[in-house]
Amino acid sequence: DEFKGVNDSLGHEVGDELLRQVAVRLRACVSGNDLVARLGGDEFAIVTAATCDPAELSALAEDILKALRAPVDCKGQDIPTDASIGIAIAPD
């Protein structure tokens, strides 16, 4: 959330590094069989086939939030981050 403010205030180089660090943190939260993709801007998606159990997916979302809420060191700047998460279960 609020990625545009990082680009506007600290520049695109720091913003790009922030996106890379967020991607690393997201990958660390999922298994090797899951897909982490950047959709555009500051939007990412995770596709997992490991479970469709709502409780397990909620726990994964909490793990992701915990990982993303830790400040990110981008080129000497500690940047606070947060996220908005939605969960969709297909085909439901």
Task: Write up this protein.
With 92 residues, this protein is an alpha+beta fold. The chain has a single domain, classed as 2-Layer Sandwich (Alpha-Beta Plaits). The chain has helices at 3-10, 12-29, 54-69; strands at 35-40, 43-47, 72-74, 77-79. The strands form two sheets. The chain has a two-stranded antiparallel ribbon with strand order 1-2. The protein has a two-stranded antiparallel ribbon with strand order 3-4. The protein is elongated. It starts with a helix and ends in a 13-residue tail after the last strand.
Question: Any key phrases for this structure?
Answer:
single chain, 92 residues, alpha+beta, Alpha-Beta Plaits, two-stranded antiparallel ribbon, 4 strands, 46% helix
CATH superfamily: Reverse transcriptase/Diguanylate cyclase domain
Number of strands: 4
How big a fraction of the residues is strand? 15-25%
The secondary-structure class comes to: alpha+beta
Number of domains: 1
Quick one: overall form? elongated
CATH class: Alpha Beta
Write the CATH fold name.
Alpha-Beta Plaits
User: How many distinct helices?
Assistant: 3
The radius of gyration is: 14 Å
Brief account:
Helix content is 46%, strand content 18%. It contains three helices and four strands.
Give the SSE map.
Blueprint lengths: L2 H8 L1 H18 L5 E6 L2 E5 L6 H16 L2 E3 L2 E3 L13
Antiparallel strand pairs: 1-2, 3-4
Helix pairs in contact: 1-2, 2-3
